[in-house]
Specification:
The structure holds 2 protein chains of 2 kinds.
Chain A lengths: L5 E6 L1 H27 L14 H33 L6 H21 L15 H23 L8 H20 L2 E5 L2 E4 L3 H36 L6 H15 L14 H27 L5 H6 L1 H23 L2 H7 L4 H29 L7 H34 L12 H7 L1 H31 L5 E6 L14 H6 L2 H25 L15 H12 L14 H6 L35 H9 L1 H4 L10 H4 L7 H10 L8 H22 L9 H11 L10
Antiparallel strand pairs in A: 1-4, 2-3
Chain B lengths: L1 H8 L6 H21 L3 H8 L15
The chains are: A mainly alpha, B mainly alpha.
Chain lengths: 707, 62
């Protein structure tokens, strides 16, 4: 036995800072969410300004909720639980502070850059390259601080929560770096290194695993720490938690392609995605049951303690979302649900239920403890619980209904074999009552959060903040006791470096097996001779499409169903996207698919439609984009854009960048003339000209007669 | 550019499915064997880790 006992202090200040940031950005992110929910049936709430229009605000909502609300809550929980599990304070308070302020600066720069239209358009990875680099730096600082704390620990064995934290740090770093490879045009604009199908595969490998390793694994770590704490009993089965961990991180990474079923992605990759998604049910439900069974014999506590109520609903929501996910990965189910509001319901079961409720449960447990007092009002916390639960139901049930209605209406044929609802708008207007119900559900949930915020502030005011918590533990012996039996998991549990390497290998396998063949084997993306690079004007138009977030509501992917080829035209081929940096397939159709929009309407239709959508489609919910007509097209970067695209592999001739501007002006003059012929006078140097050129080009390469 | 980089590390692409299946099998069987052989005393020690810390007085919510 060691002769001395070390005394040390846990830093509660950093925990408090992250807790406050999480609550503040939670309220902000959900308020923006409510705004976009209202915009879906009240287009006037786009306020006619580019900065408040749906396409730019929607990524603000998703980024705020994922990286600001949930992100700060992760750090709050990690900075509280990890030192206590390791019996060692965080290695460096300075790094903790750099992490905190760095992360908030990143959030702030996202809040500024996204409404300005500075976006890569890749979902949950919208931020432009300088912010990407900042994220990587801050993440590494977090990782160093975490790992050094682990090395300085006083508890030899790493508890399962720590494994989940380690897997999170490693995998998020890998995902973020690989998905963010891009060639800068200037400080505010870049093009993805990957194109089309490959970009899609990388993006959804990232997107899916951002859900897995940002929204799930760190929260599972928090569950494995805070649930036993709150219930005051150990986790139901520690054995199960080990299986849960290894199976989850190994399988999760393969499932990304289930976001691209029936797309131009090769079949083998789609099938891999489906198979691994089904396999994911086992570890996910193992984890859920492990959580719920921890409360066996203690369910009477759940009746009284709001902390446990929040946690039980959170874990149940985890179970529901992780059963639903695999079911949505079955091709036959996906055929109906993909691109519909079903997806929105699915993600909100996860975000509101799993992440939201677990965060609130932890906060209600943590804040009284850090302030050495009791919760200000249990009644109010219960009210928050019930309003939140009802809000969640009011949110997701209408969205499930809407999703099913959309999926079925898009596919409905008449007895004569024609589409029953050939006008897409008809299917949108049908679900407007559901959008209204969803906004009510969202408001209820937000009301609950505000009550919670008040309750936590009142709790803090009623107590005194304990900035440093004293603890003591014997130091680690230099030489571990000789092991009896020497079982492998005991071996790995006490070797963080080997553990880190092993979990990295586990998460790399899936990505490598799926991605390398996609990039290397030519036959995975059959080339089409007719498909040519975009003209400079079309490149500029495409960048406006990206800037305005059109991809939030419009897909560019006609799936090989008769219901889609009837509605849109020829289904989309992998070879059509080879110059698409980034890909713009989208994940939701609030409006129709646009891959075959080229040549479908005259230029004047697009002009009028962008100016006032309802003039062309009465009842349309699309926001107007009047600034596209007023604003001059910025051509200062056109040459730089051509150079950047050349670097990522688009075969423009050498020195074409010098010629680009002239070609752009010639084509713009032609579009302007065509508009003039149709009775619309607009200068050839306006943004609308470039956007029309791009839209009229879309999908026409394989059908030249369309143009 | 990307494909050139990757070509270098993937000379034998045909072996990928077999390698991944074997790895998969080994990882899962190994993990199960490992978990089943863990000692009860050790499991109890690990499970109790979050509960080890003395809390700041009685702070139940009520």
């Amino acid at each position: 036995m060691p002769s001395s006992v070390d005394t040390f202090q846990y830093d509660n200040r950093i925990v408090k800072q992250f807790a406050i940031a999480s609550m503040v950005f939670g309220v902000v992110g959900m308020t923006v969410g409510l705004l976009v929910a209202l915009q879906m049936f009240l287009p006037q709430l786009n306020f006619g300004s580019p900065f408040t229009t749906f396409g730019r605000i929607r990524p603000l909502h998703t980024n705020a909720v994922i990286f600001a609300f949930v992100g700060n809550a992760i750090f709050m929980g990690v900075y509280y639980s990890m030192p206590r599990l390791l019996k060692a304070p965080m290695w460096s308070k300075k790094l903790s502070q750099i992490h905190f302020w760095g992360w908030q600066t990143i959030i702030l720069s996202a809040a500024i850059s996204l409404p300005l239209g500075l976006t890569t358009s890749k979902e949950y990875a919208e931020l432009e390259w300088p912010i990407d680099i900042a994220i990587a730096v801050i993440w590494v600082i977090f990782g160093i601080n975490m790992f050094m704390t682990i090395l300085k620990r006083r508890e030899r064995h790493l508890y399962v929560a720590i494994w989940f934290y380690i897997a999170t740090v490693v995998t998020v770093a890998v995902l973020h770096v690989v998905n963010s490879f891009e060639i800068p045009v200037n400080l505010l604009k870049s093009y993805s290194l990957y194109a089309g199908v490959q970009d899609g595969l990388v993006q959804w490998w990232y997107g899916h695993n951002a859900v897995a390793f940002f929204l799930t694994t760190p929260y599972l770590g928090l569950m494995y720490y805070f649930l036993p704490k709150a219930a005051n009993r150990p986790i139901y089965s520690y054995r199960l938690s080990i299986i849960h961990f290894w199976a989850l991180i190994f399988i999760y990474i393969w499932a990304g392609p289930h976001h691209l079923l029936y797309s131009a992605l090769p079949d083998w990759a789609q099938s891999l995605g489906t198979v691994f998604s089904i396999m994911l049910i086992a570890p996910s439900w193992g984890g859920m049951l492990n959580g719920l069974l921890t409360l066996r014999g203690a369910w009477d506590k759940v009746r009284e303690d709001p902390v446990l109520k929040f946690m039980v609903v959170a874990i149940t929501a985890y179970g529901m979302a992780t059963l639903e996910g695999p079911l949505l990965s079955l091709k036959s189910v996906n055929a109906i649900t993909h691109f519909t509001d079903w997806t929105i319901a699915h993600v909100h079961v996860g975000a509101l239920g799993w992440n939201g409720f677990l965060t609130f449960g932890i906060l209600y447990w943590l804040i009284p403890r850090m302030y050495g007092t009791k919760l200000h009002s249990v009644k109010l916390a219960n009210a928050h619980f019930w309003i939140g639960t009802l809000g969640m139901l009011f949110y997701v049930i209408p969205m499930y209904w809407a999703g099913l209605a959309e999926g079925l209406m898009w596919k409905q044929f008449t007895a004569e074999g024609f589409l029953q609802y050939p006008n897409f708008l008809e299917t949108v207007l049908q679900v407007v009552p559901m959008y209204i119900a969803r906004a009510i559900g969202g408001s209820l949930f937000l009301t609950g959060v505000l009550l919670g915020g008040y309750n936590l502030i009142a709790t803090a005011r009623g107590g005194k903040f304990i900035a440093e918590e004293e603890a003591s533990a014997p130091p680690l012996e230099a030489q571990p006791k000789p092991e009896k039996g020497g079982y492998y998991h005991r071996w790995i549990e006490r070797r963080p470096v080997q553990f880190l390497l092993l979990s990295t290998v586990a998460i790399l396998i899936g990505g490598i097996v799926e991605m390398v063949p996609m990039f290397v084997i030519k036959s995975n993306v059959p080339s089409i001779a007719n498909v040519k690079p975009y003209t400079p004007l079309e490149v500029e138009g495409r960048d406006i499409y990206i800037r305005e977030g059109c991809v939030s509501c419009h897909s560019q992917l006609v799936r090989p169903f008769r219901s889609e080829t009837e509605r849109y035209g020829e289904y989309s081929k992998a070879g059509e996207y080879v110059y698409d940096h980034p890909f713009l397939w989208g994940s939701k159709r609030t409006g129709p698919d646009l891959h075959r929009i080229g040549g479908k309407y005259p230029d004047a239709w697009h002009y009028n439609h962008m100016l006032e959508p309802t003039s062309m489609s009465p009842g349309s919910l699309m926001p107007p984009f009047p600034w596209l007509i007023e604003d001059e097209l910025n051509t200062h970067n056109t040459a730089a854009k051509i150079r950047a695209l050349r670097k990522v592999g688009v075969p423009y001739a050498k020195d074409y960048d010098e010629q680009a501007l002239e070609d752009l002006q010639t084509q713009a003059a032609a579009v302007s003339q065509s508009l003039a012929d149709q009775g619309i006078q607009v200068d050839s140097d306006r943004e609308i000209i470039a956007l029309i050129a791009y839209l009229q080009r879309l999908g026409t390469d394989i059908n030249p007669s369309a143009n | 550019m990307m494909s050139q980089m990757l070509q270098a590390v993937s000379a034998n692409l045909g072996a990928y499915p077999a390698i991944s299946l074997i790895l998969f099998f080994v990882v899962f069987v190994g993990m199960l064997a490992m978990v089943l052989r863990m000692k009860r005393t050790h499991i109890e020690h690990m499970g109790a880790l979050p509960l080890d810390n003395a809390e700041q007085g009685d702070v139940t919510h009520g």
